[in-house]
What we know:
CATH topology of the largest domain: Transposase Inhibitor Protein From Tn5, Chain A, domain 1
Shape: elongated
Oligomer: single chain
Largest sheet: 6 strands, mixed
Strand order of the largest sheet: 1-2-8-7-6-5
CATH superfamily of the largest domain: Transposase Inhibitor Protein From Tn5, Chain A, domain 1
Number of strands: 8
CATH architecture of the largest domain: Alpha-Beta Complex
Number of helices: 6
Strand content: 15-25%
CATH class of the largest domain: Alpha Beta
Amino acid sequence: MNPELLRIQQALRSLLKIVRTILSLKYVVLDGHFGNYPSAFMVKSENLELISKMRFDAALYELAKGEQTGPGRPKKYGKKVAVSKMDEKYLKSTSTKDNLRTEIYQGTLYNKEFAFALNVVIILKTNLLTQTQAHVILFSTDLELDYEKLIKFYSLRFQIEFNFRDAKQYLGLEDFMNIKETAVTNAVNLSFFMVNFSHGLLQSHRKKNQDFSVLDLKSYYRGYRYACETIKMLPQKPDGILLANIFQQIARLGAIHAVSSTADAP
Length: 266
């Protein structure tokens, strides 16, 4: 394993030491950069299963069929798989929307870079008007994993990236200037705590506006705070209806999308 995988293995072991006291984990999801045998070896050495993505031009082979004839090493690889013309026996689902057909195939296949067979899921999309095709090859070292779960688990990786994006863009992960271990740990933990906390706050707004974002949320509560501080300076507090309208209008300032619900006056 290269230095990058050794660092990841060390971080994974530290995580498992903490998490396994309360949770039983089975899968590690890594992006296509780690869709190779050394990464799979590293994950399996920790008694886990890898879910990742292969290169689009990865060569796949069926398992060898028939009995061994003659001396020598047993035959391991069968017929090479044509991803654009998959055998019907591997087809799991098909759907069509807006002249785009999506076919999902699953099978136990070999890739010559790996020392063992893989659970491979191929998502093949075909434009019915132009007949152009595009595909994605996902795989897992768990041969029993259902194709729907494999796709769903791999998709969760993007949510992790979105969390990092929100933490860096909105919640200070990219801005702190600490250099000592404890201070850095606290700053990072606070950023990700705020990611989780903000997602909880977003739920009520997204019931009425699905596009309501973290930036809208920050603008909403900033405006709410401005309104509170301004009203404290007034000699007489406005009546309830006017007060609610003031909060609603100020909470809209700076928002990209309309505030999903009326701000409540304190």
